[in-house]
Design brief:
This protein is mostly helical. The chain has one domain. It contains five helices and no strands. α2 packs parallel to α5. It is elongated. The protein starts with a helix and ends in a 15-residue tail after the last helix.
Length: about 160
Protein backbone atom coordinates (compact mmCIF):
# COMPACT_ATOMS: atom_id res chain seq x y z
CA UNK A 1 0.00 0.00 0.00
CA UNK A 2 2.87 2.39 0.74
CA UNK A 3 4.30 1.89 -2.79
CA UNK A 4 1.00 3.07 -4.26
CA UNK A 5 0.86 5.98 -1.82
CA UNK A 6 4.46 6.99 -2.59
CA UNK A 7 3.80 6.80 -6.32
CA UNK A 8 0.65 8.91 -5.90
CA UNK A 9 2.61 11.47 -3.90
CA UNK A 10 5.35 11.51 -6.54
CA UNK A 11 2.78 12.20 -9.26
CA UNK A 12 1.41 15.09 -7.19
CA UNK A 13 4.93 16.43 -6.65
CA UNK A 14 5.62 16.34 -10.40
CA UNK A 15 2.33 18.12 -11.11
CA UNK A 16 3.16 20.78 -8.51
CA UNK A 17 6.61 21.20 -10.03
CA UNK A 18 4.99 21.69 -13.42
CA UNK A 19 2.65 24.33 -12.02
CA UNK A 20 5.70 26.27 -10.83
CA UNK A 21 7.98 25.53 -13.79
CA UNK A 22 5.64 26.28 -16.72
CA UNK A 23 4.84 29.91 -15.72
CA UNK A 24 8.49 30.44 -14.77
CA UNK A 25 9.62 29.31 -18.23
CA UNK A 26 6.83 31.40 -19.78
CA UNK A 27 8.06 34.56 -18.03
CA UNK A 28 11.69 33.78 -18.91
CA UNK A 29 10.88 33.14 -22.58
CA UNK A 30 8.70 36.23 -22.85
CA UNK A 31 11.11 38.61 -21.11
CA UNK A 32 14.48 37.29 -22.30
CA UNK A 33 13.72 35.95 -25.78
CA UNK A 34 10.56 38.00 -26.47
CA UNK A 35 8.94 34.75 -27.57
CA UNK A 36 6.20 33.54 -25.21
CA UNK A 37 5.22 29.89 -25.00
CA UNK A 38 1.93 29.36 -26.76
CA UNK A 39 -0.55 27.60 -24.48
CA UNK A 40 1.44 27.95 -21.27
CA UNK A 41 -1.59 29.32 -19.40
CA UNK A 42 -3.81 26.49 -20.63
CA UNK A 43 -1.20 23.88 -19.69
CA UNK A 44 -0.81 25.42 -16.22
CA UNK A 45 -4.59 25.23 -15.70
CA UNK A 46 -4.50 21.62 -16.87
CA UNK A 47 -1.77 20.81 -14.34
CA UNK A 48 -3.71 22.57 -11.58
CA UNK A 49 -6.87 20.59 -12.31
CA UNK A 50 -4.87 17.36 -12.32
CA UNK A 51 -3.08 18.22 -9.07
CA UNK A 52 -6.27 19.07 -7.19
CA UNK A 53 -8.19 15.99 -8.23
CA UNK A 54 -5.31 13.50 -8.19
CA UNK A 55 -4.32 14.84 -4.75
CA UNK A 56 -7.83 14.43 -3.32
CA UNK A 57 -7.45 10.68 -2.58
CA UNK A 58 -4.34 11.45 -0.53
CA UNK A 59 -6.41 13.82 1.58
CA UNK A 60 -9.10 11.17 2.05
CA UNK A 61 -6.53 8.49 2.85
CA UNK A 62 -5.03 10.66 5.60
CA UNK A 63 -8.45 11.47 7.05
CA UNK A 64 -7.82 15.16 6.43
CA UNK A 65 -10.97 16.00 4.50
CA UNK A 66 -12.98 18.92 5.82
CA UNK A 67 -15.18 18.24 8.82
CA UNK A 68 -16.37 20.17 11.83
CA UNK A 69 -13.99 18.72 14.40
CA UNK A 70 -15.24 20.81 17.30
CA UNK A 71 -18.85 19.81 16.69
CA UNK A 72 -17.85 16.17 16.30
CA UNK A 73 -15.92 16.21 19.56
CA UNK A 74 -18.80 17.88 21.39
CA UNK A 75 -21.16 15.06 20.45
CA UNK A 76 -21.29 11.83 22.35
CA UNK A 77 -22.45 8.29 21.81
CA UNK A 78 -25.38 7.88 19.47
CA UNK A 79 -25.30 11.46 18.15
CA UNK A 80 -21.66 11.07 17.12
CA UNK A 81 -22.40 7.76 15.38
CA UNK A 82 -25.32 9.33 13.50
CA UNK A 83 -23.14 12.24 12.36
CA UNK A 84 -20.36 9.82 11.35
CA UNK A 85 -22.84 7.78 9.33
CA UNK A 86 -24.17 10.90 7.62
CA UNK A 87 -20.63 12.05 6.81
CA UNK A 88 -19.75 8.61 5.44
CA UNK A 89 -22.88 8.37 3.30
CA UNK A 90 -22.41 11.92 2.02
CA UNK A 91 -18.74 11.32 1.19
CA UNK A 92 -19.34 8.00 -0.58
CA UNK A 93 -22.37 9.28 -2.47
CA UNK A 94 -20.82 12.58 -3.54
CA UNK A 95 -17.47 11.04 -4.55
CA UNK A 96 -19.16 8.24 -6.46
CA UNK A 97 -21.64 10.59 -8.11
CA UNK A 98 -18.96 13.05 -9.23
CA UNK A 99 -16.86 10.18 -10.63
CA UNK A 100 -19.91 8.84 -12.49
CA UNK A 101 -20.92 12.27 -13.80
CA UNK A 102 -17.37 12.98 -14.95
CA UNK A 103 -17.08 9.65 -16.75
CA UNK A 104 -20.45 10.27 -18.42
CA UNK A 105 -19.31 13.73 -19.49
CA UNK A 106 -16.05 12.35 -20.87
CA UNK A 107 -17.88 9.78 -23.01
CA UNK A 108 -20.29 12.43 -24.26
CA UNK A 109 -17.36 14.62 -25.37
CA UNK A 110 -14.77 12.21 -26.72
CA UNK A 111 -14.13 14.33 -29.83
CA UNK A 112 -13.60 17.62 -27.96
CA UNK A 113 -10.24 19.10 -27.03
CA UNK A 114 -8.89 22.19 -25.32
CA UNK A 115 -8.69 25.23 -27.62
CA UNK A 116 -4.97 26.04 -27.78
CA UNK A 117 -3.03 22.86 -27.07
CA UNK A 118 -5.73 20.46 -28.29
CA UNK A 119 -5.47 18.32 -25.14
CA UNK A 120 -8.22 15.72 -25.53
CA UNK A 121 -11.16 16.37 -23.23
CA UNK A 122 -10.97 12.87 -21.76
CA UNK A 123 -7.41 13.49 -20.58
CA UNK A 124 -8.33 16.88 -19.17
CA UNK A 125 -11.19 15.44 -17.09
CA UNK A 126 -9.63 12.02 -16.55
CA UNK A 127 -7.88 13.23 -13.41
CA UNK A 128 -11.23 14.27 -11.95
CA UNK A 129 -12.80 10.89 -12.67
CA UNK A 130 -9.84 8.94 -11.28
CA UNK A 131 -9.47 11.15 -8.21
CA UNK A 132 -13.12 10.91 -7.17
CA UNK A 133 -13.40 7.19 -7.98
CA UNK A 134 -10.34 6.40 -5.85
CA UNK A 135 -11.65 8.67 -3.08
CA UNK A 136 -14.98 6.80 -3.11
CA UNK A 137 -13.15 3.47 -2.77
CA UNK A 138 -11.01 4.87 0.07
CA UNK A 139 -14.12 6.03 1.92
CA UNK A 140 -15.54 2.51 1.59
CA UNK A 141 -12.26 0.99 2.84
CA UNK A 142 -12.35 3.33 5.84
CA UNK A 143 -15.76 1.99 6.84
CA UNK A 144 -14.85 -1.62 6.08
CA UNK A 145 -11.95 -1.42 8.52
CA UNK A 146 -13.97 0.68 10.96
CA UNK A 147 -11.15 3.12 11.56
CA UNK A 148 -12.19 6.19 13.55
CA UNK A 149 -11.72 9.54 11.83
CA UNK A 150 -9.12 10.60 14.39
CA UNK A 151 -6.94 7.56 13.54
CA UNK A 152 -6.26 8.00 9.82
CA UNK A 153 -4.05 4.99 9.16
CA UNK A 154 -5.91 2.35 7.24
CA UNK A 155 -6.06 -0.36 6.32
CA UNK A 156 -4.79 -1.35 9.77
CA UNK A 157 -1.22 -2.57 10.00
CA UNK A 158 -0.93 -6.25 9.19
CA UNK A 159 -4.15 -6.58 7.19
Amino acid sequence: MSVVRNTWQAICAVLLGGIVLVPLVQVFMRDVFVSPLVGAEEFTRFLLVCLVFIGYPLVVNDGENIRMGELHEALSGKARRVVDAMIFLGAVFSSGFIAYATITTIFANLNNATPTLKIPFWIFLGATAVGFAVACVLHLIRVRHRVPADRPEYPPEGS
